[in-house]
Write a structure and sequence with these properties.
The protein has helices spanning about 15-20, 30-35, 50-60, 70-75, 105-125, 130-140, 145-160, 170-190, 195-205, 215-225, 245-260, 265-275, 295-310, 320-330, 340-350, 375-380, 400-415, 420-435, 440-450, 455, 460-475, 525-540, 545-550; strands at about 40-45, 90-95, 160-165, 210-215, 230, 245, 295, 355, 385-390, 390-395, 480-485, 490-500, 510-515, 555-565, 565-570. By secondary structure, it is α/β, with parallel strands linked by helices. The protein folds into 4 domains: about 15-240, 3-Layer(aba) Sandwich (Rossmann fold); about 245-315, no CATH class; about 315-415, Arc Repressor Mutant, subunit A (Orthogonal Bundle), CATH 1.10.10; about 420-573, no CATH class. A 5-stranded parallel beta sheet has the order 2-3-4-1-5, with helices on both faces. It has a 5-stranded mixed beta sheet with strand order 11-12-13-14-15, sandwiched between helices. The longest helix has 20 residues, at about 105-125. It starts with 13 loop residues before the first helix and ends with a strand.
Length: about 575
């Protein structure tokens, strides 16, 4: 009996995935397309999208040292029937700049040391192609720049094609930018900075270069003054180069189901996963042609839990991504946001989308600009393309996984002067979810909104109240928050959908209608607004979609009316 394939969760080495008989979503059909592009390619994608595994596959495909293993590695993949003439013809140097850690002060030394070690490994693999004199000179120097010069001269003389693959090209430069500021960052990426000089040398000696990263910031600064490559990040041909389509996920789940390793309804699992991991699009031309994409690592995280535990993970967000989120948070400097960028974050949270252009590249000095900021969020996977309006893009929050990150960031800001224990708030949410006692929790959030003086000076209005409530309601795991959910009769302010797949004991669901009235408006206007809100919320409750999502729970319709920052009236209607 054939064994069931392993789950390649967290694996980034293509050879290991294949030789250890793990499930592999075939991306080899893109190899010929990549070869048709420029010789120097840059591809930007968010973290946890399988970038390193893609590079490892390309390395195995082109490496002359692995030419004889082509059938054993690629025999079951698309490319085995469509190999290109370049297969197995290159000596490949692979650099992973995420491996360069330590203190910023000795960064140049560590960069050179890391590259020297990798170059020695390169020469160990291909030493049969070089004579002893060259090998002695190469191993006899410690500096990577000298090793590159020796390699370049000899490879050119012998007409050896060289391929450079760089993983996380912007990893340590992002750290420098965040920890030491723009001046130190510019010193290594501009003029005669060591990092810039390294890339000038790479371009002169390698026949092909493929670089992957998470942000185009370093790309812009490195390429200023000379053409380093072609950015294919938003090219529709490569929209689906990384990530999983829904059909990819379905085929994977069916494989494990038919093998007897996965129990349960495959379609129900996909529906459970989609709100959390799906809906990515990286090219506007692909909106109506390609399916939306799943975050591949997250999909594997879910599957691994299903196979091991028999159920969906209690936390749909992989705890291992916390480090990634913190890196991103430091880079975009949410703890030091100026007013305009705070406005961008709040608008995205409150409306779920923003109208913006996506810039292919931008220098570090401009990432604080509010017109550039959405592009940074896009490349980090915090926004995705959901539509177009004229010549601009509509960027939206892709899924609940990302939405929770926004809520956490906003909650941290709101709680800057609020030392109330969140465990007490979770107790109140327990009462709300299991017993239907919603008033204590809503009273608590309304009081917190009023008492938070740092917020009170900056937010006043229905949208801002909604953002505040959304942030505080995100503390509970029992509900999937859906602000501005489109229903048959319009958009409700907030729908608390019970996550009964993971918490079947949740017995109550809620629609909240939040109304704001300036403090100087007359009582008659307050009465009309209240009556309109009651009529609205009843129309929302009649929508078939609401009945379906609330099935098995008691639905509560709660209207809250604020005058200024004071809660004036709150009732279940």
């Amino acid at each position: 009996m054939k064994s069931v394939k392993g789950i390649p969760y967290g694996m980034s080495n293509f050879v290991d995935v294949i030789t250890q008989d793990c499930y592999y979503v075939d991306k080899t059909k893109y190899v010929p397309l990549l070869e048709e592009q420029s010789r120097y390619l840059i591809f930007i994608r968010p973290r946890r999208f399988g970038k390193s595994l893609l590079l490892s596959m390309l390395r195995s495909y082109y490496d002359i040292g692995q030419k004889k293993e082509f059938e054993s590695l690629f025999g079951d993949l698309w490319i085995s029937q469509h190999p290109t003439p370049r297969q197995g013809t290159y000596q490949v140097l692979h650099l992973d700049f995420s491996q360069i850690g330590g203190q910023v002060d000795d960064l140049e030394e560590r960069f050179d040391s890391y590259c020297a070690v990798q170059l020695d490994g390169f020469m160990d693999r291909y030493r049969a192609y070089y004579d002893e004199n060259i090998l002695r000179r190469f191993y006899g120097t410690e500096k990577s720049r000298t090793k590159l010069d020796i390699l370049n001269a000899e490879a050119r003389r012998l007409h050896y094609p060289l391929y450079l693959i760089i993983d996380e090209y912007d990893n340590f430069t992002n750290v420098v930018l965040n920890e030491r500021g723009e001046n130190v960052y510019r010193a290594i990426t501009h003029a005669s900075g060591f990092y810039r000089e390294a890339f000038k040398k790479y371009k002169g000696m390698f026949d092909r270069i493929f670089m992957i990263g998470v942000s185009p910031v370093t790309l812009d600064d490195l390429s200023s003054g000379f053409n380093i490559g072609w950015n294919i990040s938003t090219d529709p041909q490569f929209n689906m180069l990384l990530g999983f389509s829904e059909e990819d996920v379905r085929a994977m789940l069916r494989y494990y189901s038919e093998a007897g390793a996965l129990r349960g309804d495959v379609e129900a699992m996909i529906e459970e996963m989609k709100p959390w991991y799906d809906n990515y699009c990286f090219a506007p031309e692909s909106l109506n042609t390609d399916p939306k994409m799943f975050n591949s690592d997250m999909a594997l995280y879910y599957l691994q839990n299903r196979l091991r535990q028999g159920t969906a993970p209690k936390s749909m967000v992989d705890p291992n991504t916390r480090t990634d989120y913190n890196k991103m948070k430091r880079l975009i400097r949410l703890d030091r946001l100026d007013g305009d960028r705070k406005g961008v974050i709040r608008r995205i949270v409150e409306e779920g989308r923003i109208l913006s252009n996506v810039f292919d590249s931008f220098p570090a000095e401009r990432i604080t600009k509010p017109d550039i900021f959405p592009s940074l969020l896009f490349y980090y996977g915090m926004l995705t393309i959901v539509g177009t309006r004229g010549d601009r893009l509509i960027l939206g929050i892709p899924n609940n996984n990302v939405r929770k990150q926004y809520y956490e960031y906003l909650l941290e800001e709101y709680r800057a002067q609020d030392d109330t224990s969140l465990s007490h708030l979770k107790d109140l949410y327990d009462q709300m979810a299991f017993d239907g006692e919603w008033r204590p929790a809503m009273d608590f959030v309304a009081r917190t909104y009023k008492d938070n003086s740092s917020v009170r000076s900056g937010i006043e209005g229905e949208r801002n109240i909604q953002g505040f409530f959304t942030a505080y309601l995100s503390v509970t795991a029992y509900y999937l928050l859906a602000p501005e959910l489109e229903l048959d009769h319009g958009f409700c302010d907030m729908f608390l959908m019970p996550d009964r797949g993971r918490y079947p004991e949740v017995a109550h669901s809620y629609i909240l209608e939040l109304k704001y009235l300036p403090r100087d408006r007359p009582e008659a206007e307050a009465t009309r607004q209240w009556d309109d809100a009651v009529a609205q919320i009843h129309r929302y409750a009649e929508a078939p979609r609401v009945r379906q999502l609330c099935q098995g729970t008691t639905l509560h319709l709660v209207v809250m009316q604020f005058r200024g920052w004071e809660l004036e009236r709150m009732e279940e209607v």
